[in-house]
Automatic annotation (TrEMBL):
This is Hotdog fold thioesterase. Signal peptide: none annotated. GO terms for molecular function: 1,4-dihydroxy-2-naphthoyl-CoA thioesterase activity. The keyword GTP-binding does not apply. GO terms for cellular component: cytosol. Residues 75-149 form the Thioesterase domain. InterPro entries: HotDog_dom_sf, PAAI_dom, Thioestr_dom. PANTHER family: 1,4-DIHYDROXY-2-NAPHTHOYL-COA THIOESTERASE 1. SUPFAM superfamilies: Thioesterase/thiol ester dehydrase-isomerase.
């Protein structure tokens, strides 16, 4: 083609892969979960924040997020980015619990920030507190590479019938 409209790169995804295969792969989502995300992927915020999942189960979701690109004015990890990381993990865990039969909607998120981070990755571990028919609650611990607590969050999701 030309510089403004280059030829698209050949796809390495299987023909039956989700339309968001590249996004799901980059975010570390296991292929077994792709069918659940086939119509919408992981959303736009996950790639913007650089979130990469390292474990995805209803009872436990783990991920990393870089500090770079997610800082506030004085160079510390932005509390809003940390809260978005926590809500992302809790919502994915709720969705995994619901197995596509219901849609999770966050109804409560609280977060306590313990210390700042200036570089590297932060690590988030989301564990279930309650996995019910109509709601879930999860706790999310965010730490730095040395294992120091950055933040602790709790999210409650209501599980709604699909429209």
């Amino acid at each position: 083609m030309n510089d403004l409209h280059p030829e698209p790169a050949p796809s390495t995804a299987r023909p039956d892969a989700a339309p968001f295969a590249a996004q799901l792969r980059a975010a570390g989502v296991p292929e077994s979960i792709w069918p659940m995300l086939a119509s919408h992927g992981v959303g736009e915020l996950v790639p913007k924040l650089g979130i990469v999942f390292t474990r995805m189960e209803a009872e436990r979701v783990e991920a990393t997020m870089p500090v770079a690109g997610n800082t506030q004015v004085v160079g510390l990890l932005h509390g809003g980015a940390t809260a978005a990381l926590a809500e992302t993990l809790g919502s994915f865990a709720a969705a995994l619990h619901a197995q596509g039969r219901k849609n999770p909607v966050g109804v409560d998120l609280n977060i306590t920030h313990h210390r700042g981070a200036r570089e590297g990755l932060v690590y988030a571990v989301c564990t279930s507190l309650h996995l019910g028919r109509t709601s879930t609650s999860h706790q999310i611990a965010v730490s730095d590479a040395e294992g120091r607590a950055i933040a602790t969050a709790r999210i409650t999701n209501q599980l709604l019938e699909p429209r």
